[in-house]
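Here's what a typical entry looks like (PucR-like helix-turn-helix protein):
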Amino acid sequence: MQELAGKLAALDPEAGAALRVIAYFDALVDRHVGLESLVRGAAVLSGQTARLSVDDRGLVVRVGADGRVLPPDGAVSPAWPHRPVGDGAGTVWVETTHEHRALDDLVLERLAAAVRLVLDRTRGRVVPGDGATLERLLLPGTTPEERERLVRRLGLEPATPVRLAAVLDGRTRDGERPVVLRAPDALDAPRRTATELDGVVAVLVPVEPPTPAGLAVRAADRVEDRLGRRVGLGPRVPAVDAARSWTAARVAVRFAAGGGADDPGRGVVDHADLGGLVLLADVVGPGTAPHPDVVAVDAAAAAHPWALATLDALTRHVSLRSAALEAHLHHSTLQSRLPVLENALGWPLGDPAGRSRLVVALALRRLHATA
């Protein structure tokens, strides 16, 4: 279809663009994506903010042209191009007042049809593992009654204990399907469910009977092809409160290391292990200037290819011998590197205060990378 659209675009640009819209939404429907992914597709294709309102669920989804989820607020303008979804189930809009374009009509038509399919699929029958149902469960603004209905549709009871994992870069090699956890023992449940929300894969794992947090971490560490992926774990909560675990998982994943020489460290982070560090996530956003300590770490990494792995090892162990073992170094080699790193950073690394400062600097560095 994409090849045909390309050939057609050479002859008739408008017809080629229309065919691309049709192919795009057909692909999303075939992948059984949720509502947010559909609205994101409409926003990207139209180059405008797209909005969906599901009236009988009190649900509003807004996504900007850059693909970022926007707050579900603001008055709706009757001047915006819009289409109803099914028999009054809801409405889709493109938030623009520019001159009418035929492409907007087609985007809205295909969006409305795709949303209708998702709503029909997520009503009534029990379908464990349905990503669209999980997405609606995690979206803000879902009423308590709706959450209970969605939980039961996933084959769970409202009180069933679950954990949410947030996975960055969580796609298989073909780029199509979200990864799932290969969970051992009690976490190896057939009711795992995955979906994608704002570029992060959400994985819901029922944890009956209750399992130690360490087991959940080991389970998340078995995400397929783990190298280069970040995983954050939320707390164990009743299934009806899954959104709370998801919020915590989204914070935790920002502290996880991406892997490799550029970002060594723990690829799986449990929100419960972060303690007061979680407060840093609130102060580091896309436009936040890096702290001087982060700049110093980056400068040290640029000057010394071994710096990041060595610094990470120092944050994980109290003794230098253990840190050297972690970094696959001889003890004397690590000792010789310390003065070089201290000179590059501008603070000592041999005392608790210096190590604590390093922990914060590395955490801030990861928060900037995932802002």
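The chain has three domains: 1-122, 130-283, 292-370.

More examples are in the samples folder.
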